[in-house]
Amino acid sequence: MSKVQVLVEFWEFLRYNKKYWIAPIVIFLILAGLILVLAQATPIAPFIYTLF
Q: Any idea what DSSP says for residue 52?
């Protein structure tokens, strides 16, 4: 199952069940995860830690 297919299926779930309020939560969690990964892997880490 490809990543695009997962996103399409998730979007169809939101549309079918009228659960649009879930989308911002998922987007925020993905962005927070990306920030944490970048905080560990780059020299920008001290600057990202000050955000939290």
A: -
Q: What is the mean pLDDT of residues 17-46?
A: 82
What ranges in 1-52 are assigned the alpha helix state H?
A: 3-17, 22-41, 45-49
Give the mean model confidence (pLDDT) for residues 23-48. 80
Q: How far apart are CA 20 and CA 42, in angstroms?
A: 34
Side chain identity at residue 39, one-letter code: A
Overall residue count recorded for the chain in this entry: 52
How many C-alpha atoms does 42 have within 13 Å on its Cβ side? 11
Output the pTM of the full model: 0.61
Residue with tokens 């944490």: 36
Give Cβ neighbours of residue 23 (< 8 Å, ≥ 6 apart): 14
